[in-house]
Amino acid sequence: MTVPDLSDEDMYRPSARRIERERHKRTRARRATAIATISTVVTAAVLFLVVTGSPGWPATKKAFFSAHYARMALPKVIDGLWLNIRLMVICGAIILVLGMLIAVTRTLRGPVFFPLRALATAYVDFFRGLPLIICLLMVVFGVPALRLQGVTVNPVILGGTALVLTYSAYVAEVFRAGIETVHPSQRAAARSLGLSGPQTMRFVVLPQAVRRVVPPLLNDLVSLQKDTGLVSIGGAVDAVHAADIIVGKYFNYTPYVVAGLVFVALTIPMTRFTDWITARMYRRQSQGGTV
Amino acid sequence: MTADANRPPVLRLESVRKTFGDSVVLRDVDLAVPAHTVTVLIGASGSGKSTLLRCANLLEEIDDGAIFLDGDEITDPRVDPDSVRRRIGVVFQAYNLFPHMTVLDNITLAPRRVHKTARKEAEERARELLARLGLKEKAAEYPDRLSGGQQQRVAIVRALAGQPKLLLLDEITAALDPELVGEVLNVVRDLKEQGMTMVIATHEMGFAREVADQVCFLDGGVVLERGTPKQVFGAPQQERTQQFLRRIVEAGRL
Ligand SMILES: Nc1ncnc2c1ncn2[C@@H]1O[C@H](COP(=O)(O)OP(=O)(O)OP(=O)(O)O)[C@@H](O)[C@H]1O
Ligand SMILES: [Mg+2]
After folding, report:
1. What is the DSSP letter of B137?
2. Could you give all domains of chain A from N- to C-terminal order, each with its CATH number?
3. For a Cys-Cys bond, which of A63, B28, B215, B241 suits B236, CB 3.0-4.6 Å?
4. pLDDT, tens digit (0-9, with 9 covering 90-100), for A6-42
5. Ion ligand 2 residue ranges (Cβ < 5 Å)
6. pTM value?
7. How many Å lie between the centroid of ligand 1 and the Cα of residue A287?
8. Which residue of A has its CA nearest to B219?
9. CATH of B1-87+167-254, one of 3.40.50.300, 3.40.50.2000, 2.40.30.170, 3.30.450.40
10. What is the ipTM of this complex?
């Protein structure tokens, strides 16, 4: 409809004005990049000089940045990290599902659902308020103490359970916030098309809600990834515990630095990936424009 | 047209081209809107009327060509778009009112934050405009609690509150009953009398005929036909225009 005559399109040639404009934009972009690069380099150089020039630097370097201990710790830390990754993936999946269920339960209307709603609310109130470390200690040490038949005493599984209990309360609230920001007109439109309440939730409300809360969800997942390190209190050998062992043996803190860097390295790709996903979603759905 | 000949048109588009990906929406649009006149854009749905208005307000970046406001090029990348937009009022096809603000706050936001008018003065003026559009009692209401037509009128008031030089109105009568169309028509006429320059996109041909100084028919990415309402509606030259108008007449909308 907008292009009635395609052959005409082949005849389009950018005008001198457009070429000049694009040249100007390129110049401006180049200048901005140059400024950014220079300021970054200067900042990094200053930081480097300040740190390495400080009086305690040689001692600090030996205690925290020793290449020897770094090489020794890295394989062990990486081995331990595998446990963190598994914990994070499995717990993360359970947390997302559980959190979503709790959130949806909390938004159910009508007196029939009152007990469910109350239960979900109580759960969130309790586990969101309970410090994670206490939850962990109680589950990891309390459950085995009960000596129940058939209940595991595996510290990894128990630690993971504690993480799930706490984190699904957080994640439920993130989902609920997302659900509540979907404009009521959307619900009205879906219901008037004949979709049932659950269908409206499933096809119209949740997809919009989830998209909106991807960044805070990711925040919680990254936080979870780090907190998987806490399962080491039950004796499981994860990346942090592996570092701990070496530190205890040689009184050198480099393994902690190595473990820290490995965790950081793990979260960065995940962040970039979700950034990319959300940007693509936005581009496809929105009107766009210059503002 | 009353504009004196030596003053530049308030808005002028020169060979404007706008594409979205592969689809060329505006191919080569030329348009001049003299001061104190009303230009009405007509054309099929999807012909690019809203896009043209968004380009004029720098909400879209054009691919080629140039747009001038009061003789100054605004599409130059060196121009500050905020200073351009301050001089232009827009009413969007979908109103775009801020749902978290009352009607009064919607209207006084820009006067207070952008034009630094005192709250009292801004609210006084807002109430005056609301009263003129028959919305006096709705000042404290939230947009979602208004009818479609009421929202539309609030959007008009909001656009007027910044005292722009140029008003871009996208389908401002779409949600109105005939009586209110007449009302808005009067408002547009009043505004014109007071020296406002307007560009209006509409499917309401009766409205177009009543209010326009210049009618432009958009088709295939160009202004295919332009002239006074009498020329365009009375004796269209282009076959596409004739076809378009015939359909409208058949639908009983002219
Ligand atoms: N952000 C966008 N991305 C891609 N295509 C777009 C975008 N905005 C508009 N279009 C396309 O540009 C064309 C013109 O749209 P526009 O909204 O300007 O039409 P219109 O003349 O205002 O129609 P209507 O009378 O129905 O309001 C349409 O084909 C539309 O699909
Ligand atoms: Mg439109």
Report:
1. G
2. 66-282 (1.10.3720.10)
3. B241
4. 555 567 889 999 999 999 999 999 999 999 999 999 9
5. B 50, 93
6. 0.80
7. 9
8. A2
9. 3.40.50.300
10. 0.76
